[in-house]
Amino acid sequence: MDRDRVEAAFEMASNAYLEIGVDVNEVLDRLGNIEISLHCWQADDVGGFEHPGASLSGGGIQATGNYPGKARNLVEMQRDYLEAFSMVPGKHRANIHAMYGDFGGNEIDRDAIEPGHFTTWISWAREHDLKLDFNATLFSHPKASSGFTLSSRDRNIREFWMEHVKRCRIIADDIGKRLGSTCFHNIWIPDGYKDIPVNRMVHRELLASSLDEILECNLSKQHMRDSVEGKLFGIGSEAYVVGSHDFYLSYAISRGILLTMDMGHYHPTESVADKISAILPFTGELLIHVSRGVRWDSDHVAILNDELVSLAEEITRAGQLENIHLALDYFDASINRVGAWVIGMRSTLQALLYSLLQPRETLDDLEARGKYFQRLALLEELKKMPFGAVWDYHCLASGVPVGMDCITQVKNYERDVLMKRGS
Ligand code: RNT
Ligand code: ZN
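A: This is the predicted complex of the input protein with L-rhamnitol.
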């Protein structure tokens, strides 16, 4: 990378943006303060640390591919995390699942996990100035093999999972308290039927009552926040998903908790971006799982595509950067996993930068005055603005690889570290 070239291009870009009323340095300050939660499960194909060599099972989701070098334990995962973060401008968060506790080689079932199993993560986060988010794990477990957890007709199964989620809330609370940053606790369950159910109602009533019982324990919203994530369908739950979008939207609003929208969990013609302003007036905040569905909820690596740009535009235009909590969620086992992380983080930040570099007031004013041709024309012109030069400079100034240097760093880490791991 040629430093002078990057700086000269930035100077020209800054002037071009100034001409349309955008202060690039102000934008970069705002971008620098955005935290994105990076999901641990991309590092090991959603395996977890409960059993050596475990793989994702029984959860309506599927990691595919067998690229070498996946993280096999906590130490490797944390090392991969730091490597990925070293290629991403800004300070971010790590998003962990309950099955990634430090269990010290012991069999700790999901209804027995405790805050102590996560102190290793907390010290690591503290050491590296990172924050943590948390997820209950209600899949890849014999008690989820019927396809039902919190909405099971079997009381014992429901109780087991309620106990798990209650404990996860306490763990999230502990994490938030210790790290001094609200820990977002996301609940996603795989419950549903492969084929046409005759009693849809019973499972939804059971799910609502299980969640109500889980939420009975009052925890400070300063330390942890609960969020529920719905979806349209999954592998093995094609005909009916108990926790659908409508179910959780109603549930979240009626109980005063948050909703998570995963970009892969809607019909391909639905726009998650459009939903933001439809829901925010009633929930105040939202969690988004940034993913890329290819034809379906395929959990491909997030890239700088139209969906991601629209999402970022909605968030920034609505002035809701503080109220939308972004977390990545995908798992591609067919490519370098650290590289997969880095692409998703950088693309999400690029989408945010692209949208922050737009003259929001001018666009809004044109719209308010009914100048729709000018609105469309300006939006088209913006696509040709030198946003890449601003991004490159941002990377340079943040001390992370610029442009293709990223590819070199990922390749070197693969050669020096990942390829030396067994499977
Ligand atoms: C599954 C949901 C959920 C999971 C993670 C692993 O469809 O998107 O968020 O991906 O909990
Ligand atoms: Zn998700």
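The two ends are 35 Å apart (CA to CA). The chain has a mean pLDDT of 97.
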